[in-house]
Amino acid sequence: MRTSRTMGTRRTLGRTSRIAATLAAGALALSLTACGGDDDGGGGGDKGGQQDGGKDTAASVTLPKLDGESLEVAAVWTGAEQENFKKVLAEFEKRTGAKVTFVPAQDPIINFLGSKIAGGAPPDVAMLPQPGAIKQAVDKGWAKPLGAEATKELGENYSPGWQEIGKVGGKQYGVYYKAANKSLIWYNAQVFENAGAAEPKTWDELLTAAQTIYDSGVTPFSVGGADGWTLTDWFENVYLSQAGPEKYDQLAKHEIKWTDPSVKEALTTLAEIWGKKDYVAGGASGALQTEFPASVTQTFTGGDQPKAGMVYEGDFVQVNIGETDAEIGTDAKVFPFPSVGDTAPVVSGGDAAVVLEDSKAAQALATWLASPDAATIQAKLGGYLSPNKNVDVSAYPNDVQKKIAEALVAAGDDFRFDMSDQAPQAFGGTPGKGEWKALQDFLKNPKDVAGAQAKLEADAAAAYGS
Questions:
Q1: Could you give the residue ranges of the DSSP H alpha helices within 202-359?
Q2: Bias regions of kind Gly residues — which residues (predicted)?
Q3: Which residues, including other chains, have CB under 8 Å from residue 264's CB and lie 6 or more apart?
Q4: Does the pTM of the predicted model rise above 0.70?
Q5: Around 251, how many Cα atoms within 13 Å sit in the side-chain half-sphere?
């Protein structure tokens, strides 16, 4: 799994406080245990009025017959995430008679789509990973507004905030099929038990747990630094908690500079982990060669002597844990990203379905992806989180995922979207450039806070045109 970054919006919605409070009040308990779940990938038939668990929801989505129609869907998804999404597409094929082909895209997806469109072979639908990418696709004339049926389905199943971030110029273009809670730290339960470490609630407690794990003979953290987006996520959580939502919004829109003292404070805080000798598996050079999936699997393989005891990232980590022998909730546990300031951070992300070829089949697929029927299929398979409020939480396969989903739905419109997802592509979403590269360089040399700030500001100013 990866989470790509492309050009950003100038809008940040909601408030962090209520979702953070929801989590802190117990949506993620200190010791979450796995429970049995239905792993069936099926989504039911064309009719019906209930989701799993007997909860009354909107009737199953009505789709047109599309026998003989074919369409393509592009996304930068790999591994289990891609395979699970293909099961959702297979159910669409079953219900409509259409043939759907998944097209693997490269990061950044806007560049990939540009090449496909220039070659006269655009996909019918693309999964775009942030609000700004939708805006860019609209500005280029690629994206087509959602039709009446897709818009109706979206309105029935999504809170106003999740609908709003899929709009450009007041028109609905995106269906946020997938969401992410990117404020979680996953840990090897045996490592914590052997070391006598406790789940931390504050940054200072996190540092104490890390030292305890280090003293037990295990490296505390695994960092997938080869993927620059993981480093931006680290920064965003520290910054949101430490500087607060108002500053977060200002920095996201480049209304304050990256040379601001609040950025210095956040980078200095990050250096307490990134710059601590032997706290990161493989050291800085090793982390910079470690891609995100490996950063997860190396935390949960090797018995009680893995390469690291903890790994930071969102709820989608479960997909990669599933590639190991670790059982989520027993061997692999999770706690909310600790509070650095007064409030624990909660950063959200997501992927939206956008129609590029305005056909009956493409609009029907957008309608399908806006339905609880589609989301329920992937929810059952794990490693996925839907902002669709009519997906019954019983569809999620374990207590960890259920609690995360409950918190997301309970938060309604109170969330902060990933900051780098709001930045122009050149700054927040291109491998080897901008924020990704600056933070990779900072991971390599965490003592150079001023140098990192200067580089971040220079790249941001160029990208934002300010």
A1: 203-215, 228-243, 245-252, 261-274, 283-287, 292-297, 317-321
A2: 42-52
A3: 449, 450, 453
A4: yes
A5: 29
Burial class (CB in 10 A: 0-12, 13-18, 19+), 259: middle
Domains in the chain and their CATH numbers? 17-30+44-181+347-417 (3.40.190.10), 184-345+432-464 (3.40.190.10)
**Residue 185 parent element (H or E):** strand 184-188
Residue 101 backbone dihedrals phi, psi, to 5 degrees: -110, 130
- The 3-state DSSP class for residue 19 equals helix
- 430 exposure class (CB count in 10 Å sphere: 0-12, 13-18, 19+): buried
Q: Which residue has the tokens 């003979």?
A: 217
Q: Retrieve residue 208's tokens.
A: 């104490």
Taking the C-alpha atoms of residue 454 and residue 456, their distance in angstroms, rounded to an integer, is: 6
Give per-residue pLDDT as tens, 269-319. 999 999 999 999 999 999 999 999 999 999 999 988 999 999 999 988 988
- State the DSSP code for 278: T
Q: How many residues does the chain have?
A: 466
117: tokens are 């469109």
